Amino acid sequence: MHCNSPKSAYWRFLGAVAVALLAGCAGQTPAIPPAAGIGTNLSAPDVSAPPKCKTQKNSKDYASSGTQNMKTAGGNLCVPEFGGWGGDLQYPNLNYSQTFTVTLTSSTTAYSGGNWPPAGSSKPIFYIAYAFDGLPGFGGTLPHGTPIEGSHITPNAKYTVEIWEYDYGGLWTEIGTCSATAKKSTKYGGSIAALGAPWINEYYKDKTGVIEIFKGALVSNAC
User: Cβ neighbours of residue 78 under 8 Å, at least 6 residues apart?
Assistant: First the structure.
């Protein structure tokens, strides 16, 4: 009589299990590992964030440029980079050879603790709060310069700029508004020029306010 050892019985058992498993899988399509790159955003635009201002400081809700000098002849103010936005804000010449300083604060939301213009039918996509150290009066010449830029700006799309003044009594006054067609930015997505056009020939009675940017041409006059 030939007796099976426990070891040989064990291997026969494993062989039977393997045969059963193969039979059960007959006719089924084997799983194919996912191709490399699936689950990642391969179509993300190849753009960089605009550079930060030299004295910029950031928080989770906003970025501040620090104090900037304004030239009598007009010029560009550095917009603090925040949420993919940045670049420059053009402003007109100043009347009476005045000189001022200004601080700009960028944000993508009307965050708690800030002062914001009354809500309208459209929601802004970017905010630039400003604070002058005096009461500037702007002239009629807006110099050419670098635009505001960012990955959220679509070339050839229409945008609207609205500038508000805030007085310490809690009232908001619209300084002006205009629309612009965005252009392509070499590095940063899209760009909008002449952002400070609503300041042309305007005089301030208070020191602070907010610039809002909206999608679409909400007004007919161009920046």
Answer: 53, 54, 56, 65, 68, 88, 89, 104
